[in-house]
Amino acid sequence: MATYHIETYGCSSNRGESREIERALRDGGHRPADGPEDADVAILNTCTVVEKTERNMLRRAEELEDVTAELVVTGCMALAQGDAFREAGVDAEILHWDEVPSHVLNGECPTVTPDAEPVLDGVVGILPIARGCMSNCSYCITKFATGRVDSPTVEENVEKARALVHAGAKEIRVTGQDTGVYGWDNGDRKLPELLDRICDIDGDFRVRLGMANPGGIHGIHEELAEVFADNEELYDFIHAPVQSGSDDVLEDMRRQHRVEKFREVVETFDDRLDHWTLSTDFIVGFPTETEADHERSMDLLAEVRPEKINVTRFSKRPGTDAADMKGLGGTIKKERSKAMSELKMEVVGDAYESMVGETFEVLVVEEGTGDSVKCRDGAYRQIIVQNAAERGVAVGDFLEVEVTGHNTVYAFGEPTDGGRPVDEDPAESTPSSA
C-alpha cells in the first residue's frame, strides 16, 4: 500500500482534478500521509498564471523532491511548461492529471488493509468484500502487504451492504484486491451469489463491481454474466486488467491469464448484455516487452475497444522480481506510452460520441466543478449535468437525460424533464398558484 501527499494550486478546476486523483488512489487502497516527508509519492498539481507563480511552482517542486521518495507533477504548468521542471533539474514524473492514478497504482491490485470496513462517502458506499489475492505477479509489491485472499462469508458482506443502504448509500462499490477470487480460500466461487444477494436488498441503489483479474473471473464468467443480465441494480461494468496483448509478456509478468481467456470473458459479456462498459489496464514498457509485443497490445486495444482504459508506464517496485530485470530505456517506454495513450483517446472518444442523441436513466453520484453534477448511466459511463442547482438536481437523484455532447472521456447530458428526478410525481413538484 502506497501513501500519498497532494498539494494543489490554482483554480477550482485544479482542485476538482486533485479530488479525482485522490478518489482513485483511495479506491485503490492507498492512504494519505501526514506530510510529504512521510509519503511514498508526492503529487504537485500546478498553476501557471504569471511568472511569479511559475517560480513558486519550481521552488515547491524542488522542496518536495528533497523530502519525498517520488514526485509527480501535474496541472497547468506541467502540461504547458513541463520542460521547465526538467531544465531546473527537478527529478519528477510529468503527467496529465488523469494519468496520475494509474502511474501511482503501477498496475498493481488495490490494497485492502486487514481492518478495512465499509465507508459511506456522500451517497457512495465502499464495501471491501475480501483482503488479499491469489496472484503472484512479478511486478507487484501489493502482495507483500496483503497475502493470500481472506474472504468473509456472503452473509457478513450482505449485512454490511444492507447497513450502507440503510445509511443512505445510492451506489455500492464492491472492492477488493481481486473481486473475482472472492471465496476461493473457502473452496467455493462465491462472487455471483454475493452480487445476487446484494441486489436483493430493499432500496433504490446501484452496485459497481470493482477490479477482477481476467484469470480470476474466467472460471465464473458465464454465471457472472447471467447475474449482470438478471439484476438492473448492477452497473453493466467490468474492470478486468489485461496488462498486455502478448502471452509472452503475460507469462513474464506471471499473470494467471492469457489473451484468449480475456477475449472469452469479453465475448461472453458481449453476448449477454446489450450495453456494457469494459474497463481494462495496460502496462507499457515491461522489461521483456519487445516492439512486437507492444504492437500486440495495440492490436488488442483496437480490437476489443474498451470504454475505459488505464495506461501505465512500467516502473520498478523494490523487492519484486521484475525490479531485478534489465529495464527498457525511458525513451522507449515514453514513446510506447504516448502511442497507446493516443489510441486510448481515440477509442474512448468514439464510445462517448456514440452516446450523443441517446437518452439514459442516470444516478447523480457526486458534485462536479461549479454548478454541475456527475452522473452514471446503467453502464457506469460518466455524464455531466450542468446548472444542476437551478434545475433542482441533487446528488442521489435518479434522472432521465439526453446526451448532447462529450469531452472524450465523459458526456454532457440535459435532463429530459427539466431536472425533476425519475418517478417523482409531477403534481407534487409543481408550485401551486396563489
UniProtKB/TrEMBL annotation:
GO terms for molecular function: 4 iron, 4 sulfur cluster binding; metal ion binding; tRNA (N(6)-L-threonylcarbamoyladenosine(37)-C(2))-methylthiotransferase activity. Residues 119-354 form the Radical SAM core domain. Residues 353-417 form the TRAM domain. Its cofactor is [4Fe-4S] cluster. The keyword Cell membrane does not apply. Residues 2-109 form the MTTase N-terminal domain. PROSITE patterns: MTTASE_N, MTTASE_RADICAL, RADICAL_SAM, TRAM. It is an enzyme of class 2 (transferase). It comes from the Archaea. Residues 410-434 are annotated as: Disordered. It catalyses: N(6)-L-threonylcarbamoyladenosine(37) in tRNA + (sulfur carrier)-SH + AH2 + 2 S-adenosyl-L-methionine = 2-methylsulfanyl-N(6)-L-threonylcarbamoyladenosine(37) in tRNA + (sulfur carrier)-H + 5'-deoxyadenosine + L-methionine + A + S-adenosyl-L-homocysteine + 2 H(+). Its EC number is 2.8.4.5. Binds 1 or 2 [4Fe-4S] cluster. One cluster is coordinated with 3 cysteines and an exchangeable S-adenosyl-L-methionine. Keywords: 4Fe-4S, Iron, Iron-sulfur, Metal-binding, S-adenosyl-L-methionine, Transferase, tRNA processing. Belongs to the methylthiotransferase family. CDKAL1 subfamily. Catalyzes the methylthiolation of N6-threonylcarbamoyladenosine (t(6)A), leading to the formation of 2-methylthio-N6-threonylcarbamoyladenosine (ms(2)t(6)A) at position 37 in tRNAs that read codons beginning with adenine. NCBIfam families: MiaB-like-B, MiaB/RimO family radical SAM methylthiotransferase. This is tRNA-t(6)A37 methylthiotransferase. It comes from Halorubrum lacusprofundi (strain ATCC 49239 / DSM 5036 / JCM 8891 / ACAM 34).
